[in-house]
Every structure is written in C-alpha cells, then in structure tokens.
Amino acid sequence: MPQDKQSLEEIGKESGEALKAELESANKKSESHEGPRKFYVTDISLRVLSEGPLGDISLKQIVYEIDEGDCVGATRNRKEREVSGKVMARLLEELGSEPGFFQLDSNGKDQG
Question: Which of 23, 70, 76, 88 has its CB 3.0 to 4.6 Å from that of 45, i.e. a possible disulfide?
C-alpha cells in the first residue's frame, strides 16, 4: 500500500510540473502576441476638511481619518495616462522604488 501511495504522489508531482510548464509556455505566447506591456500613471487630488492641521501623516492615516475619524474628504481631479516603460522606470525611481518592481531594467526594457 505505501508503494501505491508513493506512486500517486509521484504522478501528482509530475502532473503539476507539466501543468506549470504548459501555463508558462502559454503565458509567453500570449505576451508575444499582445505587444509591448502598457504602464499607467494616475494622479488623484484629495481634498480633506478637518478642524485642525493634519501635519505629517501617512496616506493610510488620512484615509482612516476620512473613513473612521474626524475628517471629511473626497477625490477631486483624476488624471490617468499611459506611459512608456522608459518613463515608468524613471517614475519608479522618483517614488523611491526601482524599475524591477515591474520587471523592468533602468532603461525601461523588460527583464525576462
């Protein structure tokens, strides 16, 4: 009986590996037909009304104050635009991240 169980485990492992390889292959094919990836920048303006200054608090804390606390807030202007990989790589660095976050090199080319 243990031999049968081991065989089933091996079959399951082999099936899982085959499925993983098939999915990776399908993803590569669909990526090549889709063309270059698209990246977007969204700028949102947030107006907050409060009885005192907010000071230096995080965006997470501002959202909490609007949802649960003593502030009222609403988004006002929303701009969304498509940017190239090169621009996205630069913007990621400006925001303290790195191009690798979106699997890009420093020139905005796909790494992989």
Answer: 76
